[in-house]
Specification:
Order of helices and strands: HHHHHHHHHHHHHHHHHHHHHHHHH
Largest sheet: none
Shape: elongated
Number of helices: 25
Strand content: under 5%
Number of strands: 0
């Protein structure tokens, strides 16, 4: 408040008319009311056009602590989260070209001293407030592995929760220009998690020791899976899941074209987790965020080709079907993954080779997985989802397509196998859904 009073002493035309609004945003008593009664949008005409370039940066700087730190908003956690979303909704009224400062201030705490000079230019020079691809790249280059590993877990938690709220509150027009920057930060955090785990293993640390170094406590699942799929700080903050944010964005903005370096970092970071998919099926109740990422990619024309970057990705996912104790939720996710691939192949009239490059080398694994799924269903599931003649004929048809006409079988006579497979998977997932509802 004292800083604002000093600025007001200058009696600038762009400040004096908004004195009460600014003080209400700083104070706690009138803060909530001010968010609902004042507006930053151009359409409201509550801010003079000539004043916006001076006033908007000031408002952004006043509100950014309330976005980053929940304790500045309210004493109760859930109240703080809701109020932060209200602040973001208030800022979402700004024009797209008025938002770069907001995102610059959000990522500033993540950067080490090596990036200070560059970031200062961004903060203070209005001519630098742009968000094209080259400028995002110039910022992300400071997010080196050493810098990311050195970040405190508190900063990671805070940043990821803010990103989640931004994606939920901002509309597509306002958030898409900044997706490369935001998700570039997230995928580098994911990479640093892998690096920490690999370093711990190479130094002979047990998973319990790594737990202690992360400040986490066990929740009844494998330590390594928790470190990568969900963290729970001892202080009680919510679960930290870098892959979950990537999955959220892939589902919401499936047409966004992420750069090659994003996917390079992503697949490098999750390679060890892919190897553990079968173990995940045996020990987890719900699909991991990573499996949800691949599920999103399996239904996208633009992203499906990425699934054969890792040779063992598809067979490792199919192998989950061979785990007798796999939960209904995980099995449903895997079946949906297969169904998406088969549907894409049908919709493309078998002309696109991307799906075939995933399915053809792994059809034996898929058939074996489906066979185990039908064979090892427990008594309750089997009673509700008893194997039908269609299910058995599907296995025979796909097997015939593989062993009958060789590589081209899936494109020719194998079309009937694909149609049968899609029908089977739809029926199977539908019945699994009915079982889940009856159990609830």
């Amino acid at each position: 408040m004292k800083v604002l009073d000093c600025l007001l002493n200058w009696k600038d035309d762009f400040l004096v008319p908004y004195e009460l609004h600014l003080k209400n945003l700083i104070g706690s008593k009138s803060f909530r009311e001010e968010l609902t009664t004042w507006s930053l949008s151009k359409e409201s005409n509550l801010i003079g056009e000539s004043h916006r370039s001076y006033l908007v940066p000031l408002v952004t700087r006043i509100l950014i602590p309330k976005v980053r730190k929940l304790k500045t908003l309210a004493s109760r956690k859930h109240t703080s989260v809701n109020l932060r979303k209200a602040v973001l909704g208030f800022l979402a009224q700004l024009e797209v070209d008025e938002l770069p400062l907001l995102f610059a201030l959000l990522i500033k705490p993540l950067l080490s001293i090596s990036g200070v000079d560059m970031m200062n230019n961004w903060f203070w020079s209005s001519s630098a407030w742009s968000m094209d691809e080259s400028y995002s790249f110039s910022v992300l280059k400071y997010f080196t592995m050493d810098n990311m590993v050195a970040l405190s877990w508190k900063k990671r938690y805070g940043f990821l929760h803010v990103i989640e709220d931004i994606i939920g509150v901002f509309d597509e027009v306002h958030v898409k220009p900044y997706l490369d920057l935001l998700m570039g930060c997230v995928v580098r955090m994911l990479g640093s998690c892998t690096s920490i785990i690999d370093s711990g293993k190479s130094n002979g640390l047990s998973l319990v020791d790594m737990y202690s170094s992360f400040g986490l406590r066990e929740k009844g699942v494998g330590a390594e899976n928790q470190i990568m799929h969900g963290y729970e700080p001892v202080q009680g903050a919510e679960i930290f899941m870098p892959e979950d944010h990537i999955s959220l964005v892939l589902n919401k903005y499936e047409d966004h074209d992420f750069a090659c370096d994003f996917w390079d970092l992503f697949f490098t970071s999750v390679k060890s987790l892919i190897d553990g998919f079968k173990q995940e099926g045996a020990s987890s109740e719900k699909p991991s965020s990573l499996l949800s990422c691949f599920l999103s990619m399996s239904g996208s024309y633009k992203l499906v080709s990425l699934l054969y970057r890792e040779e063992n990705l598809a067979p490792d996912i199919f192998s989950i079907l061979t785990v007798p104790t796999a939960s209904e939720a995980i099995l449903s996710c895997v079946l949906k993954f297969v169904e998406n691939l088969l549907n894409l192949d049908n919709e493309l009239d078998h002309e696109d080779g991307a799906v075939n490059r995933i399915l053809l080398p792994n059809l034996d694994a898929l058939i074996g997985g489906l066979h185990c799924l039908f064979k090892f269903s427990n008594a309750t599931r089997r009673e509700e989802t008893e194997t039908t003649e269609l299910e058995r004929s599907m296995e025979m048809e796909i097997a015939g397509a593989i062993h009958g006409d060789g590589e081209g079988a899936i494109d020719g006579d194998g079309e009937g196998a694909i149609d049968s497979a899609v029908s089977l998977l739809e029926n199977r997932r539908s019945r699994i859904g009915e079982v889940e509802k009856s159990e609830d």
